[in-house]
Design brief:
The complex is a heterodimer of chains A (255) and B (307). Helices cover 80% and strands 0% of the residues of chain A. Chain A is mostly helical. The mean pLDDT of chain A is 90. In chain B, α3 crosses α4. The chains are: A mainly alpha (255), B alpha/beta (307).
Chain lengths: 255, 307
């Protein structure tokens, strides 16, 4: 446990000191600022428009962070051969993977919560009606980022970084579309499509499940049972993906 | 652990991989066996591509051997307990450039699991001073020169006071002063009872430092034994100087065995030549190594091969 924590702490430091993070944070801040400007374009929906756009900005930034940094996290250690001195120490490959994932997840948490705080300050001055769902929407973004990060780590254990980014972005896009797939499965007459689409439903995580971003905007309540269920489901996906990553990674040669 | 005990026994290590270009199977290690004794400095020699780095990676399970066995500190296999007693510096090390020298050593000290947190700071300071980097401890590694990186790399290998240190080309990229300093560190560490196993292309350094040598050629072991035994058995050549009848100048010849010298003297005397001088010349490790590496008749026999 100590080894995982030490690696996570070092990964946190690595990402925090990376210029890419700051580019992403600046991009996110610009989106949040743009949300205020866009709000002014509407007469009666200005607060909702600002909130909606603000959450979208935080969502995109968190996903970009998980995909782009997650895809290179392990590859960089292999390419620069820093992994050699690490794995020669009394740590297992599983501990290494878990430490890297936890470290990046900690950064995603800090970024999402900080951007959420900035957005809430802006919205406060617009007299936004704050509800508990504001926090739930941020938690949904964190759940989704955790799954995407695990997907990036999984592909990163055998593919090159550029392919890892492509695969992970594909999972992100499919993950937001997989919910609608059920409708097409019911309507389709092709057996082949039905079988393939059902298989896709099983192998691609349904990322719309954690999309609670419109709840605080339209003052819709989210039952806590739904959040708890999504939390368990997210944890299940993370455990499955990390286990698969470790399985591939444990016999990999670093030549 | 007494000095005659083995910290590492390697038995029949084999490793092959597919060439990335041709997809042809390349046998990198062909059943390599050797042992490292506690408290000794052992040099690991071989030409480029002989299998030194592959061997080290297989020993530390950074690459997995196809066959063979390792016994670390008397126990089969590389356990976490064994790893905590090993320090390792890879070839051409790249380190976390966003860390400062002190942070870097602290990080490796923490994951070694062998240093109490209250002792870590003292150890970091002590090592920075020992490798001559006290002035750069708070500077990020991205600003370090190649020599400084090599020195901080050696410090990370020693941070947890290991019982066995593996250094892959520790003197590469260092200027003469740096090499001298690394030599001193290796001697100091060995004097404290730590076994040192280092690969090098710099044979004068290996000759002056190593009690024992392990030499590979094309993935096969061609020598495993004491340096002095290798030098006394293979490092002698004989120089014969004579004058021929009716000629004014001297002629000379270098011969590899005493029997050859006797035979040649008999022949020259019969031809009326005058023997002027017969002397023994001691070859350096470099000369012996080149002879072993390029002469097919030296492959793979040696006085202690496989011992």
């Amino acid at each position: 446990m100590n080894a995982i924590f030490v690696i996570a702490k070092n990964t946190f430091r690595e990402v925090i000191r990376d210029r890419i993070l700051y580019s992403l944070v600046v991009f996110a801040l610009l989106l949040v600022l743009l949300s205020l400007a866009l709000g002014q374009l509407s007469f009666d929906e200005n607060i909702r428009l600002s909130a909606n756009f603000g959450f979208t900005g935080i969502h995109i930034s968190a996903m970009a962070l998980a995909v782009f940094i997650g895809s290179t996290l392990v590859a960089k250690e292999i390419e620069k051969q820093t992994i050699l001195t690490l794995l020669a120490r009394p740590i297992s490959r599983a501990q290494f993977i878990m430490g890297k994932a936890l470290g990046l997840m900690a950064v995603v948490n800090v970024v999402v919560l900080s951007l959420g705080l900035i957005l809430s300050v802006f919205l406060y001055f617009l007299n936004f009606n704050f509800q508990f769902e504001f926090l739930i929407a941020l938690v949904g973004i964190l759940f989704e980022a955790a799954i995407l990060l695990s997907v990036a780590l999984f592909f990163g254990s055998f593919a090159r970084p550029i392919m890892t980014v492509v695969f992970t972005v594909a999972v992100f896009l499919l993950g937001h579309w997989v919910e609608s797939l059920g409708y097409f499965i019911k309507r389709s007459e092709s057996e082949f499509f039905k079988v393939t689409a059902t298989a896709v439903q099983y192998v691609i995580p349904d990322l719309e499940r954690m999309n609670w971003r419109s709840a605080p905007v339209y003052a819709v309540s989210v039952p806590l049972a739904e959040v708890a269920k999504a939390a368990g489901w997210t944890l299940g996906w993370i455990m499955f993906l990390v286990a698969a990553t470790v399985l591939i990674f444990r016999r990999r040669d670093f030549v | 652990m007494t000095s005659s005990e083995n910290v590492l026994e390697v038995r029949g290590l084999r490793k092959s991989y597919r060439s990335p270009m041709t997809r042809k199977k390349v046998e990198a290690l062909k059943g390599v066996s050797f042992n490292i004794q506690a408290g000794t400095i052992t040099g690991f020699l071989g030409a480029n591509g002989a299998g030194k780095t592959t061997s080290i990676k297989c020993l530390l399970e950074l690459a997995f051997a196809d066959a063979g066995e390792t016994v670390w500190f008397g126990k089969t296999g590389l356990s976490n307990e064994a790893k905590s007693k090993i320090g390792f510096l890879p070839e051409r090390p790249y380190f976390y450039e966003y860390l400062t020298g002190s942070e870097f050593l602290r990080f490796y000290g923490q994951i070694s699991g062998r240093i109490a947190p209250r002792d870590l700071e003292t150890r970091v300071k002590q090592l920075l001073e020992r490798v001559g980097l006290s002035h750069a401890g708070e500077r990020p590694l991205r600003g370090y020169s190649k020599g400084m990186l090599q020195r901080i790399g050696i410090a990370q290998a020693l941070i947890h006071r290991p019982e066995f240190v593996i250094l892959d080309e520790p003197m590469t990229g260092l200027d003469p002063d740096g090499r001298h300093e690394v030599r001193e560190i290796i001697q100091e560490v060995a004097a404290q009872g730590t076994a040192v196993f280092f690969s090098s292309h710099l044979l004068p350094d290996a000759e002056s430092l190593c009690e024992r040598l392990v030499i590979l050629k094309k993935g096969e072991l061609i020598f495993n034994g004491r340096t002095d035994a290798l030098l006394s058995d293979l490092a002698q050549t004989w120089q014969l100087i004579w004058t021929a009848p009716g000629e004014s100048g001297v002629k000379q010849l270098e011969l590899s065995s005493l029997a050859e010298v006797q035979q040649r003297i008999d022949g020259l005397r019969k031809a009326g030549c005058e023997i002027r001088n017969v002397s023994m010349k001691r070859a350096s490790l470099e000369e012996v190594f080149v002879r072993m590496a390029f002469d097919p008749k030296n492959e793979p026999s040696s006085p202690e091969a496989g011992r």
